[in-house]
Amino acid sequence: MLSQQELKQQAADAALEFVEQVAGPDVIIGVGTGSTADLFIDGLARFKGRIGGTVASSERSAARLAGHGLKVLDLNDVATMPIYVDGADEIDANLHMIKGGGGALTREKIVASVAERFICIADESKLVQTLGKFPLPLEVIPMARESVSRALTALGGQPRLRDGFITDNGNIILDVSGLAITDARGFEALVNNLPGVVTCGLFALAGADVALLATQNGIRRLD
Ligand code: 5RP
């Protein structure tokens, strides 16, 4: 029986095969945030000198990449990336995701938007039928904490301030539990439109292109 850590490693290794396919001196790889993304970063170290560099979705991932001697570029200097590799807190069969457990959702969405393909790496426990059991993270401008909380309560959720956490962009996170999100694209658009919401942790309007889900019997790929 493989442990969850071993499953995460398996998913990270599967994503490294995609890097192998696209690697080249001018190729930039987009890199996510979290414990699964950390394993991907550690494996990416062996591509030092074989890729042009990386763009990171958080200060945390940037530091880990730099620690391996990998070049970390400013997204403003990068026009395109063949792949962006990141984990998820939940993913459904439509490749819609909830992300932001690590609080990096805004930069993740921005970096992913510049990549041609989003490759989601996770263990199979992240695959759900309906999104929302994992509390939906929202990055919010601090002065909008209460107004956004009230709006989410009216939408049927229970928002809770993530205690003592400030994002890389200087904002707060509200984690919204009690949601069963049946129309992920519609709900993402609705929440994105609330004044004060910087980013909604739903990645459905632009979901993953490929999911590499590690199981006890190997990688299950969803396209
Ligand atoms: C960070 C994220 C992560 O991808 C998500 O929380 C999954 O993390 P892990 O790989 O540690 O389970 O969205 O903001």
What would you say this structure looks like, in words?
Helix content is 30%, strand content 26%. The protein is of the alpha/beta class and 223 residues long. It has a six-stranded mixed beta sheet, sandwiched between helices. It has a four-stranded antiparallel beta sheet with strand order 8-9-7-10. Residues 32-37, 86-89, 99-105, 108 line the site of ribulose-5-phosphate (5RP).
Residue runs with pLDDT of under 50 for 5 or more positions:
none
The major pleated sheet works out as:
6 strands, mixed
Q: What does the radius of gyration come to?
A: 17 Å
Separation of termini?
26 Å
Helix content: 25-40%
List ligands, each type once.
Answer: ribulose-5-phosphate
State mean pLDDT (0 to 100 scale). Answer: 98
Secondary-structure element order, as H and E?
A: HEHEHEEEHEEHEEHEEEE
Number of extended strands: 13
Shape: globular
Given the helix and strand composition, which structural class is it?
alpha/beta
Helix count equals 6
What is the strand arrangement across the widest sheet? 2-1-3-6-12-13
Q: Quote the beta fraction.
A: 25-35%
In summary, what is this structure?
The chain is 30% helix and 26% strand. It has helices spanning 4-22, 35-44, 59-67, 105-114, 145-154, 184-192, and strands spanning 28-31, 53-56, 81-86, 90-91, 97-98, 115-123, 136-140, 158-161, 172-177, 197-200, 202-203, 210-215, 218-222.
